[in-house]
């Protein structure tokens, strides 16, 4: 099962969500491989910082047209491939969409991010010429339901063709700190972050179950 985490906007939480999802899945004893498609190699660096005492997560870097081949290869030995997407406007964006069984589209609750979505959906439409359906779900990151604008963006996303995950992630320092230590929030000392990431993982696993049952 391949989960692509993609959005052509930079800094929306692609890497954070890819790594944290991988950590939760690894704690549930799934074998997980992150494919880092970003030339900045944030997930490769995260892997270098990760202690060998923590559940093992494979991280590989693929920034070229070898993506689909790599997904096939690493799927043979892993339950989940998680693609950490890149904001670069190159062919790899379409390749990520095509290689994914499920797409997660992280979004910040900002009007500007909402407008740049059309870049992503141009790629998505392009990919749909090669595949009938590609399930895609927005996930709101750094979301605060007490802020009116955040709730408005939530409402706008709920009206789009792509789905919207029930779980939202709050802005929490732990996401930054855990990343530096090669960890996920699930492995850190913030129970609320741990809970929301576990909720997110459960929701993604339900989607996976629905897809595999079809
Ligand atoms: N929920 C959150 N709370 C606090 N900080 C966060 C949260 N999500 C992401 N961040 C921080 O925001 C910054 C950008 O996040 P991240 O690197 O995951 O985005 P990205 O979409 O992968 O960016 P890029 O497009 O550059 O690859 C990072 O410093 C990350 O630690
Ligand atoms: Mg990133």
Give an overview of the whole structure.
With about 210 residues, the chain is an alpha/beta fold. It has one domain (about 1-205): Rossmann fold (3-Layer(aba) Sandwich). About 45% of the residues lie in helices and about 15% in strands. It contains eight helices and seven strands. The chain has helices spanning about 15-25, 40-50, 65-75, 90-100, 110-130, 150-160, 175-180, 190-214; strands at about 1-5, 30-35, 60, 80-85, 100-105, 135-140, 165. Strands 3-2-4-1-5-6-7 form a seven-stranded parallel sheet, with helices on both faces. The longest helix is centred in the C-terminal third of the chain and has 23 residues, at about 190-214. It is globular, with a radius of gyration of 16 Å. The two termini are about 15 Å apart. The structure holds adenosine-5'-triphosphate and magnesium ion. Magnesium ion binds near residues 15, 38 and 84.
Please state the oligomeric state of the protein chains shown: single chain
The overall pLDDT average reads 94
Rg on CA atoms, Å: 16 Å
Sketch the topology as an H/E string, one letter per element: EHEHEHEHEHEHEHH
Q: How many strands, which pairing sense, and closed or not: the largest β-sheet?
A: 7 strands, parallel
Chemical compounds bound to the protein: adenosine-5'-triphosphate, magnesium ion
Going by CATH, the homologous superfamily would be: P-loop containing nucleotide triphosphate hydrolases
Give helix % range.
Answer: 40-55%
């Amino acid at each position: 099962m391949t989960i692509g985490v993609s959005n052509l906007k930079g800094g929306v939480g692609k890497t954070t969500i890819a790594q944290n999802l991988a950590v939760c899945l690894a704690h549930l004893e799934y074998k997980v491989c992150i494919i880092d498609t970003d030339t900045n190699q944030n997930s490769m660096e995260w892997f270098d910082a990760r202690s060998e005492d923590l559940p093992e997560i494979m991280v590989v870097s693929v920034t070229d047209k070898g993506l689909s081949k790599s997904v096939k290869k690493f799927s043979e030995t892993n339950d989940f491939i998680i693609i950490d997407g890149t904001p670069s406007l190159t062919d790899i964006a379409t390749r990520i969409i095509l290689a994914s069984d499920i797409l997660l589209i992280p979004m910040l609750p900002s009007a500007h991010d909402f407008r740049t979505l059309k870049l992503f959906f141009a790629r998505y439409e392009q990919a749909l010429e090669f595949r009938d359906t590609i399930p895609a779900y927005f996930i709101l990151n750094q979301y605060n339901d007490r802020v009116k604008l955040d709730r408005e963006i939530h409402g706008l996303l709920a009206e789009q063709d792509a789905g919207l995950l029930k779980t939202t992630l709050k802005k929490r320092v732990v996401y930054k700190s855990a990343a530096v230590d090669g960890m996920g929030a699930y492995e850190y000392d913030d129970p609320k972050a741990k809970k929301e990431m576990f909720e997110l993982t459960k929701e993604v696993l339900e989607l996976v179950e629905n897809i595999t049952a079809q």
